[in-house]
Structures are given as C-alpha cells and as structure tokens.
Design brief:
It is elongated and about 100 Å long. Helix content is 70%, strand content 0%. The protein has 301 residues and is an all-alpha fold. The protein has helices spanning 2-25, 46-59, 71-93, 100-103, 105-120, 130-134, 141-155, 171-189, 194-200, 202-217, 223-239, 249-300. The termini are far apart.
Length: 301
C-alpha cells in the first residue's frame, strides 16, 4: 500500500514537470484554438495553475511601440528564414558526393540578396532594418548564421565554377562534367571485365586528367570538380586496378637520373682534365731535353 502511494506521488510529480516543459516549449498562441493542447484539469495542481497564469501574463505582455520591429523588417526576416533553410537543405542534400556549386548557387544568390536588403537596403519611408535585425543584441544571430554559410561557400571556391554574377556554370565546368560523364559511362560498360576497362577507357581517362590539369593551372577548379576527380581516380586505380603513367613523371625521372649521374660526370671530367694537364707539363721537358742533346752534338762535331 505504501509502495502504491509512492508510485502515485512520483507519477503526479512527473506529469507536473511534463506539463511545465510543454508550456515552455509551446508558445501561448499555440495553446488556444482548435489545435490547442488540452490537459485534464484534475492532474494540474493549484500551485502549478497559478504559476501558469503568471507565465502567460509575462508571455502576452508587449514592449512599447517604439521598440517593436517594423512590419517591413519582419517580412524581410521571414523571407530570410525561408531562403536560409532552402540553402542549408541544399548543402546537406548535395554534400556527398559534393555537388553544391552545381545545384545550390541559386539558393546562395537568393540568401545573399535578402541579407543585403536587411543590412543596407532602405524600405518604405526610409526604414532601415540593419540595426533592428542584425545589431540589436550581443549574439547578432542573423549575421552569425549568414557568415557561417558564406564561409562554407567561399571555402568551396564555387565562384571559380560560376559566371561573373553567379547566374550559371562556366563553359569550362560544363565541358569537364561532360568529359567526366564519358569516362564514367565507359567504366559502367566494362564493370565485369576490368582488363578491358583499363584498355578501352584509357584514352577517355587520359583526356579527363589532362583537362583537370589545365583547369588546375588556370585556377578554375571548385570543390565539385576536385571531389569528382578524386572519386574517379580512386575508381581507376583502386577499384579497377588500372595503372596510368602520368606525363609529369617523365621530367621527374629525367632530372633524378641526371642528379644520380652528376657525381660520375664530375669525377670523369676532373680525371680527363688532370690527364690533359699532365701531358702539357711533360711536353716542355721532352722538348728541352731534345734541344740540349742537339747542342751537345753540335759541340762535339
């Protein structure tokens, strides 16, 4: 019997704390109307009811009109929230494999535009939302959220794969993607025979590597192209076991071979030079001795 009383007491306490938590999570506007959360009055203690009335009185209170956000700024805030969610969802959806620059540039452009309107744009009646929305508190939430996504976009270097005003993909990017699709299509046609894959797809894979090297030199790479090339190289070498000698290794081998033979060339040239000097030193002695012998013969004759 005592155990049952303790169980009932604990249950009542848990329900009371649950009600308190729900009241904190659900806004007062959601606590009324057809969709209101209705709870039995029997399970709410009197003291808890008084606390809830006090909570509602605080929540329903309003600030003076001169401190309220202008309706125009509220509308900008709503649009900002929609575009922020759209762009963030796009980043998550195209995170693996990375295709954010190809598919999310319109979302970033829209977010950038609405944030610019909030930061510096003038609304009806010369209303500026910069201070009321971005600098009214220590957290500066709108600025922090936008800055984080902007850092991601900048780190991805998507501007190198897009036109000047970020309206479309560049021609180089489109051409690379078309060349990549040709290589991947060739891979799919020879999945059951890797030896034939390495032979038949070698020319296409070589062309793709050369194109990537040119774009890397011209600094027209973004994260989409880098990730796609890394995946393709992994498929070629690791998954399919194909080998492809890269052209840039030829100069490296040549320079390395030259450095290895350089000491031999140095000592050989030093040896030949020393031998030549010996011959030059010996030649005058022979000439001197022969001339002295001729003088002696002349005297005796």
């Amino acid at each position: 019997m005592e155990l049952s009383k303790c169980t009932i007491a604990v249950s009542c306490s848990f329900v009371a704390w649950t009600i308190t938590l729900m009241n904190c999570l659900v806004s007062p506007a959601d606590m009324s109307g057809d969709g209101a959360v209705k709870l039995p009055a029997a399970v709410i203690p009197v003291s808890m009811t008084n606390n809830l009335e006090f909570f509602y009185s605080l929540s329903l209170s309003s600030f003076p009109e001169d401190l309220e956000v202008n309706e125009y700024c509220v509308e900008l805030l709503r649009i900002y929230g929609q575009r922020y969610v759209t762009f963030a969802n796009c980043l998550v959806f195209y995170a693996r494999p990375v295709k954010v620059c190809q598919n999310c540039y319109t979302g970033f452009k829209g977010l950038k535009e609405i944030y610019g309107n909030i930061s510096s744009g003038q609304g009806p009646g010369n209303v500026s939302c910069h201070d009321s929305l971005t600098r009214s508190d220590r957290l500066m939430l709108l600025y922090t959220l936008y800055s984080n996504l902007e850092d991601i976009w900048t780190s991805a270097e998507c501007d190198q794969c897009l036109t000047e005003h970020e309206e479309a993909l560049t021609n180089d990017t489109r051409y690379f993607m078309a060349t990549l699709n040709q290589s991947l299509s060739c891979f799919e046609q020879h999945l059951n025979n890797h030896s034939e894959l390495c032979k038949d797809c070698k020319a296409r894979y070589k062309r793709l590597n050369e194109l990537y090297g040119k774009m890397e030199k011209n600094q027209t790479l973004c994260i989409d192209i880098e990730d796609a090339m890394n995946i393709t190289r992994k498929l070629w070498s690791k998954n399919y076991g194909c080998s492809f000698p890269r052209e840039e290794t030829v100069p490296v081998i040549a320079v390395s071979s030259f450095m290895l033979f350089l000491p031999i060339i140095f000592y050989l040239s030093s040896f030949l030079h020393s031998e030549q000097k010996k011959r030059k030193l010996i030649h005058p002695k022979r000439a001197k001795s022969s001339s002295s012998l001729m003088n002696i013969q002349d005297k005796f004759s």
